[in-house]
Amino acid sequence: MLKRISxxxxxxxxxxxxxxxxxxxxxxxxxxxxxxxxxxFKVVDVLQKAGFEAYVVGGCVRDLLIGLKPKDxxxxxxxxxWEVKELFRRSRIIGRRFQIVHVQxxxxxxxxxxxxxxxxxxxSKNRRQQTDSGMLTRDNVFGxxxxxxxxxxxxxxxLYYDPSTNSIHDFTNGIDDVDAKIIRIIGDPETRFRExxxxxxxxxxxxxxxxxxxxxxxxxxxxxxxxxxxxxxxxRLFDExxxxxxxxxxxxxxxxxxxxxxxxxxxxxxxPMLNDRQGIPMKLVSQALINTDKxxxxxxxxxxxxxxxxxxxxxVQRLASNFEKNGNSSPYALSKAAGEIILNQIPVxxxxxxxxxxxxxxxxxxxxxxxxGGNRAQRLVEHPRFRAAYDFVLLREQAGENLDGLGAWWTxxxxxxxESRQTMADDVMATxxxxxxRRRRRNSPKPKADPAQ
Length: 453
Ligand code: ATP
Ligand code: MG
Prior knowledge:
The protein is of the alpha+beta class. It is built from 23 helices and ten strands. The strands form two sheets. The protein has an eight-stranded mixed beta sheet with strand order 1-8-7-2-3-6-5-4. It has a two-stranded parallel sheet with strand order 9-10. Adenosine-5'-triphosphate is lined by residues 58-59, 71-72, 74, 152-153, 157-158, 196, 198-199, 202. Belongs to the tRNA nucleotidyltransferase/poly(A) polymerase family. Its EC number is 2.7.7.19.
């Protein structure tokens, strides 16, 4: 596939005009109008027939070129938001400062963005305010298609496809970079990262997703701009982390984040614990992401609660063990540590309650799953968070924690019939009560008391 693309691209390079974009016409690339989602095609068609410029743009063009299935199809046009709205009955303008139009179709919504300019005059404005609000203020300055291309983040994300002529318009040599598998920031990398630090994460995300290399001029400033991530609003950073870890290439993305010191600003409480590359924290997070990637490939459900539970667990465990050393019971220490660690994380990535509550349940259950004698095991299996907590036990064991075969015990228990389950639970109860076991326990971590809450 890439070979074919490559041949097409080279053929066209010779036809580069002195100014304006490279245009890859019909037969000079591997795209065809039937690859474009019907509704996006319709939007482009209506806009063009009304006399506006319109293209399918961004990630979908990039993905189609390299043979991936696009997540969505975005349209960029010279029509102003209100002009777009007039053309489509079922449409509405979204956002105040960054206005886009959502055109509703029976199956989906097509997002239509007016060409914007990234006018450099505004870079002299108060930088902090600028960084806090990302590029929103500037992005409502409308512009030409060329200006629109240069305000985008990556060359491979700035390709404009016109289905009516089956041509790709390339203002930033994005086609060359697709061909050479290169992630390159458009414009001066340092400036573009400073304008919007989320672009640091986007570089990491797309390098991992596409399997591309980050070219040196883009990669060089990443480490020392990483701290700018602290200026990104916590809700936006939370959303970005979901894209980083839940898009199917979580492990590769994580490696790039660590390499460029970006991860320290996403989960600061874990960052220093990853310095030991062979340590359990590194293994736990890597394994959590390997498992998540596998689940996504198998179209299984993944939840941010589980991922964040894994990302923060090493910090929770360490703090809980400090509290225990100070004489607190295990459940109390764990609960107090969990509360503190979450509280510290919220100002970085604002984890919504609907995720932080299940996270705490998964952590709490790590203690409960050990106390499984008598009727407890049966009750625990019925707990709504049991499955996640059990998966979390397996994850901890995969990462090298020694839990005395707890995962295997629960695996067997779940597969067993009611009688066998009872026998297993009775055996645990008997072992817990045996004096030998008690004696042995005195040298190992404190016995777990009943949960305080
Ligand atoms: P995908 O949807 O597959 O994750 P995408 O490239 O479509 O990838 P989106 O987040 O949907 O990414 O953004 C659409 C387009 O908007 C991008 O391709 C890029 O051109 C532009 N864009 C998005 N975020 C930024 C940003 N922070 N700075 C500059 N341009 C951006
Ligand atoms: Mg997209």
